[in-house]
């Protein structure tokens, strides 16, 4: 049977598609016309051309599939038109899940995000059960992913769709073509262009471990449950220190207060929206999110799925090597 992977031109999706191929599965992907397909180069896969929001494209993509890995999402921390993001992340997700089940898919894996999880006030690591409400979601991206996950859960409860949810943390590694916000941090730090940092924290994980977690969720996950796919909790300062140690650079020692950067973010966003200059280098939502340390535990996935994560240094080294090989960082002399 065929496995459909959405978002396979992107970072996590391409890793999922490659992992499926490694175990001998036939892979089909849905890709937009004119999109960046570098992550599909050299892969023996079937490509259905179309947009996730197009009903005809969805119908063609799900025909005859045995499983669905819905990784695609509109992932931007700043967007001039939030309605388009909600249309992709919520409405298209709901419709795709229904069409896949109607087409005969036996298991559907939905890629959510740890952005939909709460952060404990006591500083402990968040779990799949840490509570949070829609009003706590900062920005359209987090709001849309929260509503999408709620819609997916409703499909399980009311329509008995065979969906398992995964919540990746912050992946790093090869094929981050866009790159992601975390990938941009790796690039800037490895290039020595980050003179300062803010007090925040992330859970970093190798993208290939996240991909393996998707397959484990498909094979062993309980319908309706969600599983954090994470790695190691690190403050931003620790991440920059790790990158400096791996590249022979110097880690920044200046810590900037969030209150100093937030006014700048408002100004930058105003100019981006007014003059159409594209996504700003610093965003209001990004600074607001940085006020919390996004620390998580993947104990549930380890216990129930057999999920494991390699050391974060390996993930950072693979990311740096890929960025060097593809021109985002200068080659080592």
Mean pLDDT: 90
**Class of the domain at 2-172 and 203-231 and 295-310 in CATH?**
Alpha Beta
Q: Number of helical runs?
A: 11
Report Rg: 19 Å
For the largest beta sheet, what order do the strands appear in spatially? 3-2-1-4-5-6-10
Q: What CATH architecture label of the domain at 2-172 and 203-231 and 295-310 applies?
A: 3-Layer(aba) Sandwich
β-strand number:
12
Order of helices and strands: EHEEHEHEHEEHEEHEEHEHHHH
| Helix content, binned percent | 40-55%
**Which structural class best describes the helix and strand composition?**
alpha/beta
Largest sheet: 7 strands, parallel
Write out the CATH superfamily name of the domain at 2-172 and 203-231 and 295-310: NAD(P)-binding Rossmann-like Domain
Shape: globular
The percent range for strand residues is 15-25%
Distance between the termini: 47 Å
CATH topology of the domain at 2-172 and 203-231 and 295-310: Rossmann fold
Which ranges are low-confidence, i.e. pLDDT below 50, for 5 or more consecutive residues?
Answer: none
